[in-house]
Amino acid sequence: MDMVDEIARAHRELIDGERKVAVLRRRYDAEIEDVWDACTDAGRLKRWFLPVTGDLRLGGRYQFEGNAGGEILECEPPRRFKVSWVMGDAPGLSEVEVELTPDGDGTRFELRHTAEVPPEMWDGFGPGAVGVGWDLAVLGLGLHLAGGEQVDEATFHLTEEGRRVITAAAAAWGRASEAAGVPPERAAAHVAAVTAFYAPEPEA
């Protein structure tokens, strides 16, 4: 699997209003039930995303290890779910919704992250701040569904391939920003900041 090609397979959209919405869509060569199970079963989630604890059902609460937690707000197997997405004491609304749709012999996957973003965070990084993280997660899901080996998250950004993937994802979110009306120079500054955050230049 060419990981940079996998990044190119996804479609990204920014809805730039009072609440920011980052949308990521792609197709998987897997049946909808398999994709649903990979996204909702704790045993499989830890194989491509993160270990999760909690009550994984409607109304239950969950916590990803070292990451976000929240409440399962909506759940309609095997089509869609929505969760609140809370990192530490971060204020404001933040929700993630995943929708799955059969597409021939595969499945169309759509993730929407809606959030009230502090102005200083948005001005500095734009949608790539969360978008690149979701790109890496969606890449991990694709590797998992294809039966491939998972990447080492602790060192992926240090590898040549990892840096190419992160650079490609950041640039793609820059293009989504411009399509949403963000001035090109501002979108370019966001791309540079996000790339430096996820894949800083190695020390000499």
UniProtKB/TrEMBL annotation:
Residue ranges annotated for the Activator of Hsp90 ATPase homologue 1/2-like C-terminal domain, each copy included: 29-134
Family: Belongs to the AHA1 family.
Coiled coil: none
InterPro entries in the record: ASHA1/2-like_C, START-like_dom_sf
Domain of life: Bacteria
Classification via Gene3D superfamilies: 3.30.530.20
Protein name, entry field: SRPBCC family protein
